[in-house]
Amino acid sequence: MPEGHTIHRLAKDLNRDLRGAKLAASSPQGRFAEGAALLDGGQLRRAEAHGKHLFLWWRPDALVHIHLGLAGVWRRWPAPPPPPTAAVRLRLSGAAVTWDLSGPNQCAVLPPTAYQEIRARLGPDPLRRDGDPAVFAARVAASAQPIGALLLDQRVAAGVGNVYRAEILFLTGVHPLRAGRALRAEEIDAIWAESARQLRLGVRRNKIVTIDRGELGKPIKEAVRAEATNVYQQERCRRCGAAVASAGLAGRRIWWCPEHQQLP
DNA sequence: CGATTATGATTAA
DNA sequence: TAATCCTAATCGC
Hints:
This protein has 264 residues and is of the alpha+beta class. It has seven helices and ten strands. It has helices spanning 4-18, 33-39, 113-120, 133-141, 147-150, 162-172, 185-205, and strands at residues 24-26, 43-50, 53-59, 62-67, 73-78, 88-93, 97-102, 106-110, 245-249, 252-256. Strands 1-6-7-5 form a four-stranded antiparallel β-sheet. Residues 215-219 have low confidence and may be disordered. It binds a DNA duplex (13 and 13 nucleotides) through residues 1-3, 5-6, 52, 67-73, 87, 89, 102-106, 152, 154, 161-164, 208, 232, 251-252.
């Protein structure tokens, strides 16, 4: 279950494992049979992420657009790979490594023009060099929506999902129900900076770990998922022990600490 | 073994 | 807001 860090990590790993070599492509599940046939025998020129969207530039002549949605996952197999399960939408095999994609929300071969069209619908990505904090700040400051909803809106910041929105607001001490336009400029800047920091840590770990000891260089051993967050799906704040509050916001559930995150 | 849930997002109502 | 898409792990019976 992916947020932006997962997709950036995938782009990195796919580039490392598959870029430049001739690849076999197939669709055991069948729903991408036509696309896989088109890709088969070609090369991965480059894998790239923007937010939760993955683009595979193919040689010759193809752009593959993949969005994992809630259930999508890639699995990596050193050669020789096991037989694919029935759910594998796309299998890409190089000499040494095979990657299996299952459950994606989107997996399609698109004309190259689609690249700009899709990216135009997305806000700045804190993990990309071209992710512009000023655009994020302007969109937040212009909105009457609560910041907890804005962080899930991919037009505001691409890549943040339900775990990170809760954790970023906790780490910056901002109550999720405060309106974007009611935030001080320093608070908006801090939210962007914390987003970038947490997503970067997520890429490095390939896992969301936002509790204090989760600093680089001090890896948490066997960080169990239930212990990796401060407020997300927690009953008590992992920093102060206060009962965590929660509510539905923008169609998902959000959690916050009533001590660390107060309304003005 | 069926129901539920999940780090997502679009479409319809 | 609700229904829908997709998969897999988990939970209750």
